[in-house]
Amino acid sequence: MQPNEQANVTISLNQKLARLSPSQSQCCIFHVHNKLRNINENAYEPEIVAIGPYYHGKKTLQMMEEHKLRYLQLLLKQRNDNLDRYVNAMRSLEEKARECYAEAESITLNRHEFVEMLVLDGCFIVELLRKYNMNFLRDKNDVIFKMDWMIYWLQRDLMLFENQLPFFVLCKLFDLIEVPNQHSRFIYLALNFFHDIFPGPGQIIEDNARGISSSNCMAVHLLDLIHKNWLPTSLATMNYPREELFSTIKNGEYWRLIKSATELKAAGLKFEKIEGAKSLFDINFKNGVLQIPQLTIEDRSESFFRNLLVQEQYFCGDTRLNFVTSYVKFLDCLINSPSDVEILRSCGIIDNWLGDDKVVSDIFNKIGDSIIVWYDDFHYAETFNRVNIYCNRRINGWLAKLKHNYLNSPWAVLSIFAAFVLLVLTLTQTAFGIVSYKESGYGTAAANCTV
What are the entry keywords (predicted)? Predict the structure, then answer.
């Protein structure tokens, strides 16, 4: 390489190093990588509202921009407040907030535009959560609360992985709008707003709502807040000790995947909905019965699961918290076809609002694609082992086939019972006949001997 060429390479690399952000440790809002996006791009993109810089200015989302302005206007009017307070607060957080976005250099918004976005988007979110929980704050002409479908899709859009503001930005704006440092209340408002989108029961951890400040909050954005507050009843019981996994090693494996619901049923296993479950993730297997809390599937469910899966894939420092990934893998094993969905639906385990069992099976056949399941920290490892041990006992399969083929209706049971009774009576009659014959034969022989 010539000296001039070497100098040019050095200059080029120095320029790229200079543009590099100081650290990626602050990044908490990313673009979904193409491997996942290509499977179902719509699941990660907002339908009606853009939050943050990634979708800012998108033409199909402009409808909500006027509503953001109206919310800010009404907020200032109700509080007789000064807009400068909000602008100055966001200006002081602009650099820190910008560092939260991956590929920050690709964000085209200048400083003033970025601060304006933080004010409009942040105040809109805070006010939306407050109005949702307190009717008296709503304007009588508020279109958002007059049309249920808008709230329905806002709940979906505000939890998308790419459609986020840093949580400390929302906390700071909440400080200005309500009482400072009451972030436990803000968390309550947020979780209550998203309550309808949860596809099953969840365990809200109260400790997450305490002691959170704008400078050091446990959640990094709203999706992370949802993830941190939708947990198994006890993570300790779901995270099996490594030595317990070793105790079930067979053929060099810690655990193996289970079969579909149709195959498990044919092997004699039963399914049962858990009544009054505290968490969707609390799955039990006992005495041949797989007990599962009810799962509701509606239009937003796939997007909800996919964005939580991405959250776990990007923030997997503690794999014990990858419970959504484990749960989705569990369903992916159970559901291979519409007949599997039908079995779970007939037991009340799946509440299918989409109507078509094939649609549900298609969702779970694809939802696990390009998702990494951490082998050593799979939450249902012991459950899978117990299910497999049970299904490998041939007698369970034989009994299941007997019930399916011959005891599948009350009339069949009555027929078999009647045949059994008839057989017993026939055998009894035959036995009495033999006894009578022998007695009569012995009597004749005795008489002959006497003569």
Answer: Coiled coil, Membrane, Transmembrane, Transmembrane helix
pLDDT tens string 224-243: 999 988 888 866 344 434 33
Residue the block writes with tokens 């149709």: 262
- Residues 298, 173, single domain; the answer is no
SS3 at position 186: helix
Q: Are 118 and 94 in contact (CB under 8 A)?
A: yes
C-alpha distances (whole Å) from 28 to each of 168, 224, 417, 432 are 12, 9, 66, 87
Write out the two tokens for 165. 């503001």
Q: How far apart are CA 112 and CA 249, in angstroms?
A: 60
Residue 193 lies in a domain: no
Task: State which residues form the domain around 426.
Answer: 410-444
DSSP conformation letters of 217-244: -S-SSHHHHHHHTSB-S-HHHHS--HHH
Distance of alpha carbon 399 from alpha carbon 410, whole angstroms: 17
Find the helix or strand (DSSP H, E) in which 83 lies. Answer: helix 83-98
Could you tell me if 272 and 347 are in contact, meaning their C-beta atoms sit under 8 angstroms apart? yes
Whether 292 maps to a domain, the answer reads yes
Contacts of 370 by beta carbon, 8 Å cutoff, 6+ apart: 35, 36, 39
Structure tokens that stand for 73 in this block: 């206007």
For 196-232, letters b (16+ CB in 10 Å) and e give ebbbbbbbbeeebbeebebeebbbbbbbbbbbbbbbb
Residue range 278-307, pLDDT digits in tens: 999 999 999 999 999 999 999 999 999 999
pLDDT in tens, 359-413: 999 999 999 888 888 777 788 999 999 999 999 985 544 444 444 444 456 666 5
pLDDT in tens, 88-103: 999 999 999 999 999 8
Neighbours of 83 (CB within 10 A): 13
Counting the structural domains of the chain, the total is 3
Strand partners, 197: none
Has residue 20 been placed in a domain? no
344 and 434 share one domain: no
Helix 394-406 with 381-391: angle, nearest 10 deg:
70
Q: Is the pTM of this model over 0.90?
A: no
